[in-house]
Amino acid sequence: MSNDDLDPREAGPHTRGTTRPEPGDQPDDAGSSAPRHRGASVMSGAGAKKETVTADEVDAESSGDAMSAEKERTKDEKAGSFWKELPILIVIALVLAFVIKTWVVQAFYIPSKSMENTLLVGDRVLVNKLVYQVRDIERGDVVVFNGTGSWDEENTVTVEPPSNPVSQLFTWVGQQFGVAPTGKDYIKRVIGIPGDTVECCDDQNRVMVNGEPIDEPYLFPGSQETHTEFGPVEVPAGRLWLMGDHREISYDSRLHQNDPGGGSVAIESVVGRAFVVVWPLNRITTLPIPDSFAPLNSEDSAAAPVAQGAAAALPLALGAAGALPVHRAGRLVARRIRGAHAGDSAD
Predict the structure, then answer these.
(1) pLDDT digit string, tens, across residues 282-303
(2) Is 223 a catalytic residue?
(3) Which whole-number Å values give the CA distances from 63 to 2, 58, 70, 319, 342, in the listed order?
(4) What's the pTM value of the predicted model, to 2 decimals?
(5) Per the CB 3.0–4.6 Å rule, which of 143, 223, 303, 342 could disulfide with 247?
(6) Which residues form the Peptidase S26 domain (predicted)?
């Protein structure tokens, strides 16, 4: 119990009516004891403890308000800067994707059954557009080519152009990224290259190239039995003989022999080599040249394996180079998001 709670009669030597000095009080010029103030005193109720708000506390409170206001401004500036830069990052990503799609790798949607079971309807494949800059097209390659003006393949998916500009944009984007058919690009396997003689059939009903029968384990079951005689056909210079893996329903070079080129397709119409299935996930696989074509291809060039290895590595190298600006853009977005979250946490 403090002295303030004692009865005045028990206060000892203190005189009634005088004020007992508080600890720390200094006497004034008249010798009386008076408290020395550095701020405002606050009393709450009778006998309440005296509270003093100092100038330092007032300054600290003002400083805290200023810091809170500064944090709020910083958070607003970060959020505003992020939303301003987001469209730029999206444009950069789209431009980069367009450049890669145009000159390096493009995804394609498989709309028909002509390449079953190697490729199924709905598969998405990646096509290497640079491989034939470092090596020639080889027998057994699965290639995508533009058939405009040369092939009008039956049962091809026809894409009606949307009348709505917004729908046109989304259709175009889907075609560029392989989620929608283009209606003009076809995919087939190379059977004969310029100068080859292609014909059918030997005594086992196999297709022959330069007099040699080709074993084709990739064919749709029962396809070999459906082969009908054709040829011999000599593939013209600068052109290719192409056939589907589902021979019974594939409308390929065999059925275009009355068209310009005698069923063959110009090499300049080839978009690139399909080298991997990327969708659906349970069908991810590569599309290598079957071993049955190795003897024929090895006769063309002893350097082919080296060139093919370089061609396979080229998209990876370009992809790694393209990943740098994408990575930087991603880091920038991440920093902006973290900054906005940090501003929220600071509150």
Answers:
(1) 999 999 999 999 999 987 654 3
(2) no
(3) 37, 9, 10, 52, 21
(4) 0.59
(5) 223
(6) 85-279
